[in-house]
Amino acid sequence: MKKNIAYIKSLVLLVLVVFLYGFTGQRNEIRLVEDTPVEFTNGANLFLSHEMVNKLLIQKSGGVKNKAKSLINLHSLENGVFANSLVENAKVYMTIDGYVKTVITQRTPVARVNTGSEVYYIDKQGIKMPLSVNYSARVLLISGSVADEDISNIFSLVSKIKGDAFLTKLVVGIHKSAGKEYVLQTRMYDQKIQIGEIQDLNVKFKKLEAFYNRAIQDKEIGKYKTINLKYNNQVVCTKD
Fold first, then answer.
1. How many angstroms separate the CA atoms of 39 and 19, rounded?
2. Kindly report the CA angle at 108 between 42 and 87, in degrees rounded to 5?
3. What torsion, rounded to 10 degrees, do the Cα atoms 223, 229, 233, 238 define?
4. Which element (helix H / strand E) includes 16?
5. Which DSSP letter does residue 125 get?
6. What number does CATH give the domain 109-239?
7. Among 12, 31, 149, 217, which one is most buried in terms of CB atoms within 10 A?
8. Residue 139 has what pLDDT?
9. DSSP class of 149
10. Distance between alpha carbon 128 and the CA centroid of its chain, in Å?
């Protein structure tokens, strides 16, 4: 008899739990979205604003605020945000307190290219990236006859410069000629460093650093206008 009573109590408790779970789930599904917060993972929202992200959500769904949670297609919203060319990664999810939250990683530019007819960034993955009306990044400036097929070479050169403390302090711009040759613009002394084609960069930049160390020691560095690294085992310079 006691076993039957215990069994009945357990059954009643189970039914009650299932009922409460279903009731809570149903209420949760019809709960309205209260807000749509946006979080940027890589610092301040430089290129995209919260308003811009919310516009992307509205364009994809007609707006999610005050809609029932059951009517929200998170996958569709996420794809809509991710489709923006300034976004590297995006995650849209529903919080337990009724918010549709968007977490965004913006793309990171490493160089700005101006061909005369087109202006764009190259991002840290070596991919073209559009400019933003919100923010202009302080990065290496690339000019000259740059075509899409040159981006890979330019990215390797930019990566080399950014990965070297001496070059990072020295170089502010890169110019590509109509051929395959490149010229670096220095931060100080307004000098042009001719490196030729993108090859043997380690050798060329070791020569450059050794030349600068010697010229600075001799207090001669400010007298040079061009520094040519294209020739083997030598640095050819011209003075003002």
1. 36
2. 75
3. -30
4. helix 2-30
5. T
6. 3.40.50.11690
7. 31
8. 95
9. G
10. 11
Task: State how far the Cα of 188 lies from the Cα of 211, in Å rounded to an integer.
Answer: 15
Q: Cα–Cα distances in Å, from 31 out to 62, 67, 78, 98?
A: 18, 8, 21, 7
Among the ranges given (24-38, 52-66, 95-109), the one the predictor scored with the smallest mean pLDDT: 24-38
Q: Which two tokens stand for residue 209?
A: 């650093």
Write out the two tokens for 99: 């918010």
Give the integer Cα–Cα distance in Å for 117 and 197: 23
Q: List 106's β-bridge partners, or say none.
A: 87
What is the structure's pLDDT at 31?
A: 59
Radius of gyration of the chain (CA): 29
Q: Is residue 9 very low, low, confident or very high in pLDDT (cuts 50, 70, 90)?
A: low
Residue 175 and residue 143 in contact, taking contact as beta carbons nearer than 8 Å: yes
Q: Higher confidence at residue 192 or residue 101?
A: 192
- Interval 79-131: pLDDT, tens: 888 889 999 999 998 887 778 888 999 999 999 999 999 999 999 999 999 99
Whole-angstrom Cα distance, residue 227 to residue 238? 7
Length of the chain, please? 240
Residue with tokens 């849209």: 92
pTM: 0.78
Give the percent of the chain with pLDDT over 90: 47
Amino acid at the residue 101: K
110, amino acid identity:
V
Strands (E) located in the chain: 38-40, 87-94, 100-106, 109-114, 119-123, 128-129, 140-144, 171-176, 182-186, 192-196, 224-228, 236-239
